[in-house]
Amino acid sequence: MKHVLILGGDGYLGWPTAMYFSNLGYQVTVVDNYFRRNACTELDTGMLYSVPTLIERAKIWHEQTGREIKVVIADLAQPEAMRRLFDGGVKYQWAVNEEFTGIPETVVHYAEQPSAPYSLMDYQHADITLVNNLRVTNNLLWAIRDYARDTHLIKLGTMGEYGTPNIDIEEGWLEVEHKGRKDTFLYPRQAGSLYHTTKVMDTDLMWFGVRMWDLKVTDLMQGPVYGIETEESAIDDRLKTIFNYDEIFGTIVNRFVTQAVVGYPLTVYGGGGQTRGYLNIRDTLQCVHVSEQNPAQKGELRIFNQIMETFSVNELAELTQKVGNRRGHQVEIKSIPNPRKEAEEHYYNPTYQGLQDIGVKPHYLTEEVMDRLFEVVEQYRENIRKDVIFKGIKW
């Protein structure tokens, strides 16, 4: 069995990825330090339902499937904590078989502070974001360099690295002709938050590791994700992933559906023309899996744009309103002064065919998909707190 190491395995995407690979028969080890849970407690953000600890989740998974997900609780911003995952010194907080599983063939790196608003709350949260995200990535690259140069690193980047340029967005690379000569460069980045800036720096760090040490890296430029349910979470209700609906950690589709369910006007920032690429949580799992099955080569930084379709904020609000009204909710759309410094009307034409070319079968955000998301959120209506939905973090 191939061994997959998932960093940030307690998160919105990390835990579903762990179950997905385990269900396919992989050896899976997850690592987390509960950063997101602790941040949600510190900032008093909204979670739609309570979620068992990572150790409890792994036990439930084993009880229900007979499959094992090993758990390590560690702060990967500490270099030695990262290195122990590769040098045989790892200590499992939960495992059926505690023997060291060996060097992983694949590392999936989610272990970062994931929120743009969090990164710009104040200087302290900016510092936490920069230090955590860059140290974890740097520590990982050095550990792979020193112990596991054949390991394939799959890193979750973000489409936010590109910003909204007035030219087409290619998949990571751009051929440039200048004064009669041509070369290929990383596509120019213009991040719109400190969080997204750390992701740009991640890409630069990985490009350095690829060029200097012949590492194998796939960088997935992911758009905002929506949804809760996966095939694996359907096994037991306690296996559902974390679901935030506040402006700090909640993604826009999940936020809008939650707002609609409790009669909170959909918060459209400014003109609402901001356009981004989106994907279903099921497609995140597909994308990571096909990337694992088709690894980058030694000395290659392979970049995919991980989205399946594009929407403006207004289009998402209108779809939410249409489905919500049909379900008996009186959904109001309300434009509010934009707390972010961003273009509200802009050109946006990204290329995103690469992942489909190697096997991803997209799920699209249809009325039926939105309807099912409403159905799930409605089950937890009594847990939703209106006071945490919008706090107006500005930059």
List the helices and strands and how they pair.
Blueprint: E1 3-7, H1 14-23, E2 27-32, H2 35-43, H3 54-65, E3 69-73, H4 79-87, E4 106-109, H5 116-119, H6 123-147, E5 152-158, E6 173-178, E7 181-186, H7 194-213, E8 216-222, E9 225-226, H8 252-261, E10 266-269, E11 275-280, H9 281-293, E12 300-306, E13 309-312, H10 313-326, E14 333-336, H11 354-357, H12 367-378
Parallel strand pairs: 1-2, 1-4, 2-3, 4-5, 5-8, 8-12, 9-11, 10-14
Antiparallel strand pairs: 6-7, 11-13
Which key terms come to mind for this protein?
alpha/beta; globular; 395 residues; Rossmann fold; seven-stranded parallel β-sheet; three-stranded mixed β-sheet
* Adjacency order of strands in the biggest sheet: 3-2-1-4-5-8-12
Structural class: alpha/beta
Give the integer mean of the pLDDT values: 97
Fraction of residues in helix: 25-40%
SSE order? EHEHHEHEHHEEEHEEHEEHEEHEHH
Number of domains: 1
Estimated share of beta-strand residues: 15-25%
Shape label? globular
What is the name of the CATH architecture?
3-Layer(aba) Sandwich
Major beta sheet summary: 7 strands, parallel
CATH superfamily: NAD(P)-binding Rossmann-like Domain
**And the CATH topology?**
Rossmann fold
Number of strands: 14
Indicate the low-confidence ranges by residue numbers.
none
In DSSP terms (H or I, runs of 4 or more residues), the helix count works out at 12
- Alpha-carbon distance between the two ends: 47 Å
State the CATH class.
Alpha Beta
Radius of gyration: 20 Å
